[in-house]
Amino acid sequence: MTDAPLVAGVELGGTKCVCVLATGPGDIRAEARVPTTTPGETLPAIEAILDRWAQEHRFAALGLASFGPVDVDRASPTYGAITATPKPGWRHVDVAQRLIARFAVPTGFDTDVSGAALAEGRWGGAQGLESFCYVTVGTGVGVGVISSGQPVRGLGHAEVGHLRIARAPGDSWPGACIYHGGCVEGLASGFAVEQRTGQRGETIGADDPVWGLVAHALGGMCHNLVLTAVPQRILIGGGVATKQPQLIPLIRAALIESLAGYAEADRIAAQIDAFIVPPALGDQAGPMGAIALGLDAL
Amino acid sequence: MTDAPLVAGVELGGTKCVCVLATGPGDIRAEARVPTTTPGETLPAIEAILDRWAQEHRFAALGLASFGPVDVDRASPTYGAITATPKPGWRHVDVAQRLIARFAVPTGFDTDVSGAALAEGRWGGAQGLESFCYVTVGTGVGVGVISSGQPVRGLGHAEVGHLRIARAPGDSWPGACIYHGGCVEGLASGFAVEQRTGQRGETIGADDPVWGLVAHALGGMCHNLVLTAVPQRILIGGGVATKQPQLIPLIRAALIESLAGYAEADRIAAQIDAFIVPPALGDQAGPMGAIALGLDAL
């Protein structure tokens, strides 16, 4: 227990939503899960949980970390909505505005990966840094880009998983992204690995050549991140990265080779084991991301 | 004449340095040029000009926009120096600290392209925007990335000209960048065009297929900028872009094709002629960048 503000957080995921009442990862007061089915079922179930918490505990802020893409422009009439998701039934569904109206507390709303990045910055592997990236390599590839302490903003939010990168020499597999074919997600996601090999990722040996191709794509993404968002550190987690721990050293080597001595390459190479690292919060990054967004709204 | 603060600006370029005393592009009180030879010649010549201006006019701030890479980390002992430039004699040469010590006024220091971007934000083609990019395609490819009104900061400054991108189908020319071969600069700079064709860019016809390859590289760079820095607008100027005006429509088409409907692609496509535009300040963007950096230091 601490004197820190109590925050209600909701991580809206593609298959389940995690509601959490906490001041931070060391002080979780309550947690509840709701399956993500339809907005008509899922959102009222979340509201019922938050209603109970509001009565029993009062919370000072609300944080919402959602699967995307989402409308994060506070000046937009559709601020707080999920936008062009392929997820059936959830396209153009308001999430934040109805909860802001219901609970009338300061509310933060952003993508799940931006939230997770902020949580790593507050409590995890990016503490003390102003500019860093959080990458999750799972079914897809998601990236939270933090610049000067905040998620990068402009025309929407970052979608770095869909960068187009230089291909590994001799690799002409078309890739698995329905939009871009061989973008980063189309080459390096768990779904892409499954499409390319016909095997589930966890059944593929650590020395299979597919991991070199995955690391090449992720190293290429890191090259472009380094030269655009100039992070002080890149955290790489998610199911694929966690289950195939040989990937991180391969990505480090791919980044150094790709930078080829340019710009801050020497500084990065000299501290590469601290520059590309696994995240520190593990499975907590998602729900703690919602708490971090709530705290940032205060 | 205005009541705005009077700023002394220095644009340090690879061949010449432009000193300017101004409140903005509509109110230039003095201008002087110094050839860029050696630091031992060039920097004292700049100081002599600024000394005179300091006596005659007093200026409230100083702005320094330099060729790069430069050390922009205010906490670094080498803040204000040019770092790993290939330019003979200028590697690890302090520029800002000696001028800060000499004139004791608030001083802004950044790359020439960050300065030019800020000038376009204040007075030119990016007024009213928080997040935008300024691209110059000349001998090299330089990009100023502005996020939430300021140049992106972290481990150094952005160096987007050296992104690695997907190659145009069937194009296997190795590229002209000494670090990366076929990065953006290695494919799209004036130097790269000259290397590839054996002709100077201004002698190549507008319908030559090389411009399609240049536009593919710059469109790929814009794709990655859109998904990382999420700019509200991208300004593209510089000698090559100015002398080959057919490039801007080709880059617009390449970006739309590359985004392939993803993320904010529909919003961008609907306003593409306002999304990728030439800069508004022309040759003034460089020196006015120095003035903008001085104003931002106040």
From TrEMBL, chains A, B:
Keywords: Magnesium, Metal-binding, Zinc. It catalyses: D-fructose + ATP = D-fructose 6-phosphate + ADP + H(+). This is fructokinase. PROSITE patterns: ROK. Signal peptide: none annotated. Its EC number is 2.7.1.4. Pfam families: ROK. The keyword Zinc applies. The keyword Magnesium applies. Gene3D superfamilies: 3.30.420.40. It is an enzyme of class 2 (transferase). InterPro entries: ATPase_NBD, Carb_Metab_Reg_Kinase/Isom, ROK, ROK_cs.
